[in-house]
Each structure stands twice: as structure tokens, then as C-alpha cells.
Specification:
Elements: H1 2-13, E1 28-31, H2 38-50, E2 62-66, H3 70-80, H4 102-118, E3 120-123, E4 144-147, H5 154-157, E5 164-170
Parallel strand pairs: 1-2, 2-5, 4-5
Antiparallel strand pairs: 3-4
Length: 175
């Protein structure tokens, strides 16, 4: 976006250094109708969507799944959510820690509220775990899954950098 344009402009105005820009994206995970071993697939979806609380540029935050497999994979994902304990990152049983800051937590929760108006909340959808009375340190968000997501919805297009998985379906590979 804006930062990429500024870097590109600065490069052009200096000595035309070669640069490559990664200007954001919304990495999809795609499941075709012939997928097998859905347990293994579900484990990988969880890792792709929730590793580092979704705060990484290659977060697999969009699951595009063939409609014939959606119910089965959705159930497997919901069943795995309790295994991803959200909490103190120093606790060996914790798999998902806090957001980077209170400001970012509020931004992610804004996307969450928008998503609740547009799609179907399956699991999660709120702040969780109050570790102290200090609001600035309570930056924990439930791992969240939204279903019935359409490509035009803002949270399905923008990088959220948070623990939100959007499920979209398709019928044919051409879609």
C-alpha cells in the first residue's frame, strides 16, 4: 500500500536500486474435492491460520474449500480449537499468546465486529483471558472462525494480522 509506494518512490529518486516489494496479501489455503486425510489437512490449516496468532504476512487466513468438504473440515477445525490454548506465552501448555499491542488488539476486534455483521460466527469472536487488571496487557483474542464468507467482504480481503480464519466455498475449479 502506501508504504510500498513511498519505498518505490525513494528508490526511483535515488540511484534506481533494484528492489522487490511485498505489499500485503491474503494468503489462501485451498482444499479441492479430491483431498484426502482431512485430519492432516485440518492440522495444517490450524498451523497456517493461527501460528503466531495470525500476526505474520503469510498467514493462511482464508480457507477456500470445495463445498462437498466444507462441513467435514469445519467440524475438524472446531474440534481442534480447544487444543490451541490461548494464554501466557511462558506457559509450556500455551499455543497462542497475546496480540502485539493494545492498539493492534483493538484493530483486530474492529475487524471481528465487522465480520459478525457480514458472516456466520462459528467459534471465538471475542477477547479472552484477563491475565491482569492492566487493560494494556490484556491483548488476548479467541481463535476465531467465520463461515459463509464472501470474497467482497472487507475482512476477507484485508490482512488482519489476527487469529481470524474465514471460510469460503467453491463448486468448480474455475471459480
Amino acid at each position: 500500500g502506501t508504504t510500498g509506494r513511498l519505498v518505490l518512490q525513494a528508490s526511483a529518486e535515488s540511484n534506481l536500486k533494484r528492489i522487490a516489494l511485498e505489499c500485503g496479501g491474503k494468503s489462501p489455503q485451498i482444499i479441492f474435492a479430491d483431498a484426502t486425510n482431512l485430519d492432516h489437512v485440518a492440522d495444517n490449516i490450524m498451523d497456517g491460520a493461527y501460528w503466531n496468532m495470525g500476526e505474520n504476512c503469510s498467514c493462511g487466513a482464508r480457507l477456500i474449500v470445495h463445498k462437498s468438504l466444507k462441513a467435514a473440515i469445519l467440524q475438524k477445525l472446531v474440534d481442534r480449537i480447544p487444543d490451541w490454548k490461548v494464554g501466557d506465552p511462558l506457559n509450556v501448555h500455551t499455543k497462542a499468546g497475546p496480540m502485539i499491542s493494545q492498539t493492534h488488539t483493538q484493530k483486530v476486534m474492529g475487524y471481528m465486529e465487522s465480520a459478525k455483521q457480514q458472516a456466520t460466527l462459528v467459534v471465538g469472536g471475542s477477547k479472552t483471558l484477563e491475565m491482569s487488571d492492566d487493560e494494556a496487557t490484556n491483548n488476548f483474542i479467541d481463535l476465531t472462525i467465520f463461515d459463509n464468507v464472501e470474497t467482497g467482504m472487507d475482512f476477507a480481503q484485508e490482512e488482519i494480522f489476527g487469529p481470524i480464519l474465514s471460510i469460503l466455498t467453491f463448486d468448480t475449479e474455475d471459480e
